[in-house]
Design brief:
By secondary structure, the chain is α/β, with parallel strands linked by helices. The protein is built from 17 helices and 14 strands. Helices cover 40% and strands 11% of the residues. Strands 3-9-8-7-6-4-5 form a seven-stranded mixed beta sheet.
Length: 489
């Protein structure tokens, strides 16, 4: 028996120290269920938001959070309510609120040094920045990628990837020649040939950020883009799959073939060079829209055929939630993407790449004051190391499978839940409701019951819990969701 126990112990340790609940190990005082003391939002929260609203636009705020009292998978508000949080700062909290290892990093001398002397990294990189990257962000690099450019946000990560694509293609066209006088003169007038007329292709319902270039590739909601000047860049359709997938195999295959044909047609007919495409493994803000691995493999084949770079936007899908560290790993591509952008759960931002030519040959071309932030890279390092230590990607996969099964049963009981999707993609799960009004009421009722949950697209509910979200949390989520559905009638 002793030998058997030792063997089981070694196996468990090898799988990431998951003999006990990881959440319990991190957060022994985490609530077992939501704690509700007031109406939602409570009086203190309403008062705080009203005061804040005088100096800061907070019309999208749900409540005034108390991060000092938030713990693990539960976010607290100033009225003392604690909600099970499956929205997690719009998919950005990896290890739970007030994770002790994150706090340890935050209080370290290395962090204090990074914050007090924040370097302009391109000009004055810190002596330890390479090691910080190699132990964290680069250790987590997608297969086939060995280089990184760090940035300030997801939007910035995408825009710097766009710049890399444009500079790359222009350099290929120019060969070994230096910039011509005409290029140098015309670029100062925002004209070709100095200013590029090349384009980035994106997909209908995609979301890639709110800066000027990234916003031109965002296609999710009009409200994001109204009144903002935009580049005349192409778009292609993204598949609209029918669910359950096993009941619509033929229809979904035809839909993906249609989208691929339209994609190639856009490439062939576009009047200027398409430097790159950008695509999400799962379209997140646009409604949690999925496509098959074969669809993405075909896209990759077409980009190689037409000498177009492929940028995979993993800002929301990356860092473990899909049951793979990078969601595009589900595709099993024969040739890796050219760039992969990241942010959110890593708390840092940037893009990975492999081709040396994606780094401009001259300094100051890919540049800003900060070029990222060593303090955020330190957090990313801790996130990566804790994910590895506790095998939290596997936790997301197994918990997601358990949760999907429970939601599948729930959708069988309530016709207002349909198009359940995210099977085999960890906790990256979503479903549709009959209308946007019905969806919004469901979110409100869930919050009143102690579940902080978010929507996406026009009618979708999305789940974005932490990586320490476990089966016991999934049970609470499903119980509250069912009660919210009952209240809606």
């Amino acid at each position: 028996m002793t030998k058997l126990w030792n063997a089981q112990l070694c196996t468990a340790l090898g799988r990431g120290l998951r003999l006990q609940s990881t959440a319990a190990a991190y957060f022994p005082s985490e609530p077992a269920s939501p704690v509700l003391k007031t109406t939602i939002p409570g009086p203190k929260s309403s008062e705080r938001l009203a005061e804040l609203g005088k100096v800061f636009d907070n019309r999208a705020a749900y409540f005034a959070a108390n991060y000092y009292n938030s713990i693990g998978n539960y976010i607290a508000d100033v009225d003392g309510n604690q909600y099970l949080d499956v929205y997690a700062q719009i998919a950005s909290i990896a290890l739970g609120y007030n994770n002790p290892e994150i706090l340890k990093t935050a209080k370290s001398d290395q962090m204090a040094n990074a914050l007090a002397n924040r370097p302009a990294l391109a000009c004055f990189p810190s002596s330890d920045y390479q090691q910080i990257l190699e132990d964290g962000i680069l250790a987590a690099a997608p297969k086939g990628m060995s280089k990184v450019w760090t940035a300030l946000s997801g939007s910035d990560a995408n825009e710097t990837a766009f710049k890399a694509a444009f500079i790359y293609h222009a350099a290929k066209k120019r060969g070994n020649n230096t910039f011509s006088p005409k290029e140098l003169e015309s670029v100062m007038q925002n004209l070709v040939p100095g200013a590029s007329d090349a384009a980035i292709l994106s997909f209908e319902k995609g979301f890639h950020g709110r800066l000027f270039g990234s916003l031109s590739t965002t296609r999710s909601k009009p409200i994001h883009k109204l009144d903002i000047p935009a580049f005349n860049w192409p778009k292609a359709p993204f598949p609209s799959l029918k669910y359950p997938l096993d009941q619509f195999v033929t229809e979904n295959k035809k839909e993906e073939e249609r989208c691929l044909a339209e994609f190639e047609k856009v490439i062939q007919q576009w009047s200027t060079q398409i430097a790159a495409i950008i695509i999400e493994p799962i379209q997140s803000e646009g409604g949690d829209n999925h496509a098959s691995p074969s669809f993405f493999q075909s896209l990759r084949d077409l980009t190689l055929k037409y000498d177009i770079l492929m940028i995979v936007d993993e800002v929301q899908t990356g860092v473990g939630a899909s049951g793979k560290f990078w969601a595009h790993e589900h595709w099993n591509l024969t040739t890796p993407p050219d760039m992969v952008t990241f942010s959110k759960k890593f708390q840092a931002a940037g893009f990975y790449f492999a081709l040396p030519e994606l780094q401009p040959s001259l300094p100051f071309r890919q540049f800003n004051t900060w070029c990222g932030d060593p303090s955020k890279a330190l957090i990313a390092r801790t996130v990566y190391q804790e994910i590895s230590k506790y095998n939290l990607v596997e936790n997301a996969a197994t918990t997601g499978a358990y949760l999907y099964g429970k939601l599948e049963s729930l959708s069988g009981e309530y016709s207002s839940i349909f198009n359940l999707r995210g099977q085999s993609t960890g906790t990256f799960i979503a479903w549709d409701m009959s209308s946007s009004a019905k969806r919004d009421m469901f979110l409100i009722e869930s919050r009143k019951l102690g579940l902080n949950i978010g929507g996406c697209g026009d009618v979708s509910v999305r789940l974005r819990p932490t990586l320490v979200f476990e089966e016991k949390h999934a049970d609470v989520l499903v119980d509250i969701a069912e009660e919210a559905l009952k209240r809606l009638g």
